[in-house]
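Example 3.2
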Amino acid sequence: MTVSWAGLAAEARISRSVLAERFVGRVGLTPIEYLLSWRMAMAKRALRQGDQPIAEIARTVGYGSTSAFSTAFSRVTGSAPGRYARQEH
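Structure, written as tokens:
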């Protein structure tokens, strides 16, 4: 099931900007920051388990390409996905 930000706002009968404001007030992050944080947490867990290829992890957490995932992961964690998977945690 795909849920859009506009759909959520419509369901709540408020504007997207008000929904975003309330989201930040409750969660402390913008919706996109929260999504990135969630994706990276899921990716870290999968990389620590070590039973999936990086390309599969990238698709699972919502990236269209391994390259885009690797770039985002490296930017957020300071480590490439392969290196992160090899580290002890």
